């Protein structure tokens, strides 16, 4: 009986060895085929390129997708190096086969941003599409609530920053499923403090559209609201206290119609903004009439040529923005007008309540 058991055990072991050897040979063959395929295609898949993406039903909306301009300036400028909190418009939430996209199980293939520095691909980030509003026409690019794997490694909040890649000219390519639908450019700058006694020796700032654009906003109240962006890049704005990094800046706004003063900001003198160090602050104001008491409503804009004159303390000359009103509506700049913009991936999206103004050079 012992000999029978020994014989069975030996036979079984030999069989297992043969199976293992065959499996190893199959695995080696598969590896050779994979390497051969890579060589034929020109090398291995680049690190961080992510999956191909979902096939979305892009016929859901008539309009081309974009990212709202104010969310781009906020999401990229409120914390230099962090790219987050963007609002995308007209992103389908169904696949071509009619399945509703699941923001969690489909996360790796749904919303992504690929980052390029000085024209070179760096890596990508995934985003959660669980926040949808305005009848499904707006979708937030929010940071995922949990970590995810990229190239076999776990990615969390700290990896959402691009400062590790250093200063340079950056481009964000926004993806929904397998389609790149929008691009945004800005510069990341590293400033160095030469003071050996300073508590902070370096800081990052972003530059780009913040310097060159302002807006008129059709507020929910019906008021006409003007908004612009401001920052400061001083390491020690308060010489007496290095802990105070905010800076008080005086500013005033005048609105002209057909070269005549029409309205100005509220107050009897310049207003004051608390400007944060290396962060782009959004400053807003309503207008009061100069010919009689009362605020300026959006409906008060009669047809004509308008000019905004923004004076900011410390700036050599006022910022000037011009726009026209036709049929009691602000005429959009060509970059915002969907009937005139020739590149949907660069559309300045203002929805129907932000009218963007370009700085007069």
Describe the structure.
There is one protein chain. The chain is mainly beta and 361 residues long. Helix content is 14%, strand content 36%. The chain has two helices and 21 strands. It has helices at 2-41, 69-77, and strands at 66-67, 86-89, 111-117, 120-127, 132-133, 138-141, 148-150, 153-155, 168-176, 179-192, 202-207, 213-218, 224-230, 247-257, 260-265, 271-275, 281-289, 304-312, 319-326, 329-330, 354-358. The strands form four sheets. Strands 12, 13, 14, 15, 16, 17, 18, 19, 20 and 21 form a ten-stranded antiparallel β-sheet that branches. The termini are far apart. Mean pLDDT is 86; it is low at 1-46.
* Terminal CA distance: 100 Å
Protein structure class? mainly beta
Shape verdict: globular
Discrete helix count: 2
Largest sheet: 10 strands, antiparallel
Number of separate strands: 21
User: What is the share of helical residues?
Assistant: 10-25%
